[in-house]
What we know:
Layout: E1 7-12, H1 16-25, E2 32-35, H2 43-59, E3 63-67, H3 75-81, E4 85-86, H4 92-97, H5 99-108, E5 111-115, H6 116-120, H7 122-133, E6 146-151, H8 159-169, E7 173-177, H9 181-189
Amino acid sequence: MKPTKSVLLISCGIFEEEIKYLRAAKKRDWQVLFLDAALHVNFDRLKAKLTETLQHYCREGRELRVLYGICHPEMSEILERYGAKRINAGNCLEAMVGPDEIARLDREATSFFLSAGWINHWEEMFARVKEDLQLDPRTLFDGYERIVVLDTGVIPIDLKKVERFSEFSNLPVVQKPINLDYLANLIESI
C-alpha cells in the first residue's frame, strides 16, 4: 500500500483568520501556509512567491492544495506545473459565499465586494495599488453603487475604517453577515 502524501494548504493571507477559526471549530488538522494577502496587487510578485512556494513544497513530496481564486492570468498553468489543486472559486469573495450569492447581491446594486480582512487593511492595500500600478485607487470604484463587506463575524470590523473607506470611495458601505459553510465545503472538496 502506497503511503499517502502529506497535504499542505497554501492560502492567500486574506483567509487567515477564517481558516484558523474553521480549523479549530471543525477540529481539522489542516497544515496551512499563508502568503501575503497583498501579493495579488502585483502579478509579478504573486507569480514569483507562489511559484517559489509550490516548487519548495513539491520537492518535499507534499500534496499541494491552493486557496486562491484566479488571482493571476496564469494561475492554472502555474498550479499545473506542480500538480497543485485549487479551490473552485473565481476570487476570495466567491470563495466565501459562492458565485450565485455574489451575483444576487450585485443585482440589488452594482457592488464592489470586500471581506472583513480587506476593509480593516484597505489603506495599506490601496497604498500598494497606487505604488505598484501607478494609479489612483479611487478610479477602481467608477461604476459601482455600493461597497459590500462580507462579514463572517470572525474578524471584528473597525467601524472607523469603514467610515473612512466610504468617504474615500464616495460609496455607501453595507455589511452582509455570512457564515463560513461555503468556504469550509470548498476547502474540503479539493
